[in-house]
Specification:
The chain is of the alpha/beta class. It contains 9 helices and 7 strands, in the order βαβαβαβαααβαβααβ. Strands 3-2-1-4-5-6-7 form a 7-stranded parallel beta sheet, sandwiched between helices. Helix 1 runs parallel beside helix 2. The longest helix has 24 residues. 37% of the residues are buried.
Length: 317
């Protein structure tokens, strides 16, 4: 881990797409402590800003330049507005790091769920064995599991039900694949065309274990993540000759606002804690530390890679 004495070149900027929470904000905080200027694109409601602005003020208090833009990073107008503002702010500086941390995906299932009675049946059998009411046992299991102190009970808690008939359509896929995948190329191309990248620049996208595993309701996001990974490889090859390195970071299960939108996320977190060799979830700070390392000169030879930052969660099964 970099010591706090390490400072990036004062001409360096990081452009973070999705920087008001989760991985994006944690990375901004880490980079600011090491002297990198920040341009943060985010999209938040007006009512959320009183909680977000103090975080941005803390970034400014580190002494770096901070440009924040609350707009739609996925629209042509939003992207142009952001890059115009960034170009005007950079002066002689250039973008060392582009971090794609946009979490805008559709979480509808493919089809209506077929009722699976496994958890209910297991509770009923256990209740019969103990000679207690199955309903009372079920409520006790849910209450103890919800406390976060008994992850092993996850299999006895029924999976959340989705609204019948609310399933993925073509437009849901198209929007998700663009927002979480191919928009990485769009932003990279525009930064390159405008000459805003530094001579030794880094492009980083964020993926998840859902790129290989199938979770109910995650099909569109999974497709978007795979598109992101493919795009990153192409950027690594085609922009590499111009000094741009492109890599993907696969974080372990992390308790972020984006994760909390996934149905059954409490069960996902419990499973991750149980199998992680280090016994806890990944944190945004864990991932931010590694992204900061990738932005250093010493990481110049890492290009076209997918690197897991999960404490061994994936290889544990």
């Amino acid at each position: 881990m970099l010591t706090e004495r390490f400072r990036f070149d004062p001409s360096y900027w990081a452009l973070i797409l999705g920087g008001s929470s989760g991985f994006g904000l944690a990375t901004a905080q880490k980079l600011a402590r090491h002297g990198m200027n920040l341009a943060i694109v985010h999209r938040d409601r007006k009512g959320a800003m009183p909680a977000i602005e103090p975080k941005f003020d803390e970034l400014r208090a580190t002494g770096v330049s901070v440009l924040t833009m609350n707009l739609d990073a996925l629209s042509l107008e939003g992207r142009k507005t952001a890059l115009d503002a960034l170009a005007a702010k950079l002066g002689s500086g250039r973008v060392r790091l582009l971090l794609h941390s946009i979490a805008f995906g559709n979480l509808k299932p493919l089809v209506d769920a077929k009722v699976q009675a496994g958890a209910v049946s297991a509770r009923e059998q256990l209740a019969a064995k103990l000679g207690v009411d199955a309903g009372v046992l079920g409520e006790a299991v849910r209450a103890v599991f919800a406390s976060g102190t008994a992850d092993a009970l996850a299999e006895l808690v029924e999976a959340p039900a989705s609204e019948p008939g609310l399933n993925l359509e073509d437009e849901d896929f198209a929007r998700t694949v663009y927002s979480m995948g191919t928009s990485l190329v769009t932003w990279t191309q525009d930064l390159f065309t405008r000459g805003l990248f530094s001579a030794d620049a880094r492009v980083i996208g964020l993926t998840s274990e859902g790129n290989e595993l199938a979770w109910r309701g995650y099909a569109a996001v999974s497709a978007g993540k795979l598109a992101l990974e493919s795009c990153s490889r192409s950027i690594a090859v085609e922009l590499g000759p111009y000094g741009v390195r492109s890599n993907i970071v696969q974080a372990g299960v992390t308790d972020t606002p984006a994760l909390r939108l996934i149905p059954g996320n409490d069960r996902m977190k419990a499973g991750a804690r149980l199998r992680n060799p280090l016994g806890r979830l990944t944190t945004p700070a864990d991932v931010a530390d590694f992204i900061c390392l990738l932005a250093t000169d010493e990481a110049r030879w890492v290009n076209g890679a997918l690197i897991r930052v999960d404490g061994g969660e994936r290889v544990a099964g």
